[in-house]
Design brief:
Rossmann fold, alpha/beta, 3 domains, six-stranded antiparallel sheet
Length: 382
């Protein structure tokens, strides 16, 4: 199988992964109220959301892909039901549907049936996921609240489908993924052996070249997503079909700031000041071991205390400037010394800038942003 996952964001990389089914069962058993969002750890462009309270399910939906998912479910279960096009992805399915319900004066029982069907389909995907990134927002609810059903009541009718999707997870993670045909001749050969319907398979081959997700493919071919995924799984496993993510997320590369300081207080201050603004802080307490780590990590900027045991900042800065891969990296001296001689020694050792303690977070952030943007490594007085 060829699978090209989208890139994780920095925030997601910092989150632990959880088993969605276990989280949901725990929240229900504790009768907590709120909104659970699970992001697929293998394809972070895909997320599922569940609203619940007092041990009851209120609604489940995808957080994206409404234009692909809703037409599929409506065509399958309620073919006479039509939503206005286009469907925006920047709002919730629940809001879209409620607006339509109110504008069309649909019967409440009919609308509740629709909400239950959408919830069941979302729960199939939510519960089949082996791992995901969790966000739980307590006391976040729906207005108006139109559905309140027992978890068991919603899940039992689709239990078999949940198990089948779970078994497919090693091959196909979600109906939002986009299968792409890599070898048309081989696909048609395999498909002919399975079905013997050449026209149908040629139509599928054409669709597989259009970057459609499973929901769209199923809508176009009047098939169930699970049946379609099961049928295409052998071709995916053999590499005849590759899987692409629903949407490629650009990698968020955080600039790395190394802080060489034996003070835990300063380390914590720097970390809190910079990480909130999108920087990654590399904490180094021992100056003698710092050079090796700096060579391995090659940060975007180095903050360096002058007064440290074993080796002072002047000596370490001179060593940094002698290493080819580090000599262009800006070095900022952090010190309580304000004398002209100390500043001259810092410049002679090769530092880029000089920040006198105590300094506030705004001063530190402004200097770090300036030097990481310009990339200046020429010693200068600050």
């Amino acid at each position: 199988m060829t699978y090209t996952p989208s890139l994780q964001t920095a925030a997601q990389q910092d989150k632990p992964q959880v088993a969605p089914a276990k989280v949901l069962q725990k929240v229900i058993s504790e009768q907590r109220s709120g909104r659970i969002t699970i992001t697929d750890s293998r394809d972070p462009s895909i997320s599922w959301r569940v609203y619940l309270g007092g041990g009851q399910m209120h609604f489940a939906e995808s957080t994206m892909g409404h234009a692909e998912r809703l037409p599929y479910i409506l065509k399958k279960h309620l073919p006479d039901f039509r939503l206005a096009e286009p469907l925006p992805n920047n709002t919730s399915e629940y809001s879209l549907l409620c607006n339509y319900w109110q504008s069309q004066n649909l019967p409440l029982n009919f609308f509740r049936k629709l909400l239950a069907l959408l919830t069941q389909e979302a729960l199939m995907q939510f519960l089949a996921l082996p791992q995901g990134y969790l966000t739980f927002e307590p006391n976040v609810g729906l207005d108006p609240l139109l559905l309140s059903a027992a978890f068991r009541q919603l899940v039992l009718p689709v239990r078999d489908q949940i198990n089948q999707w779970a078994q497919l997870q090693s091959v196909i993670g979600s109906p939002f993924q986009r299968p792409h045909l890599e070898d048309s001749d081989q696909f048609l050969k395999l498909a002919w052996q399975e079905s013997g319907n050449g026209r149908q398979m040629q139509n599928m081959a054409n669709l597989l070249e259009q970057n459609l997700c499973f929901y769209e493919l199923a809508t176009q071919t009047d098939r169930d997503t699970l049946t379609l995924a099961t049928d295409l799984a052998p071709a995916i496993q053999s590499g005849v079909i590759s899987l692409h993510p629903y949407q490629v997320i650009e990698a968020t590369v955080r600039p790395v700031i190394a802080c060489v300081d034996d003070s835990q207080t300063i380390q914590q201050f720097v970390k809190l000041s910079l990480e909130a603004e999108g920087f990654e802080v590399l904490q180094l307490m021992d100056p003698k071991q710092a050079l090796t780590v700096l060579i391995e990590q090659q940060p975007n900027l180095i903050l360096m205390d002058i007064e440290m045991p074993k080796m002072d900042g002047y000596e370490l800065c001179r060593m940094v400037r002698q290493v080819d891969m580090l000599k262009e990296i800006p070095v900022v001296m952090l010190t309580g010394r304000e004398g002209i001689i100390d500043r001259m020694r810092a410049r002679m050792s090769g530092c880029t800038a000089y920040l006198t303690k105590p300094f506030n977070p705004q001063e530190l952030l402004a200097l770090v942003q300036k030097l990481t943007t310009s990339g200046a490594a020429i010693p200068q007085e600050v």
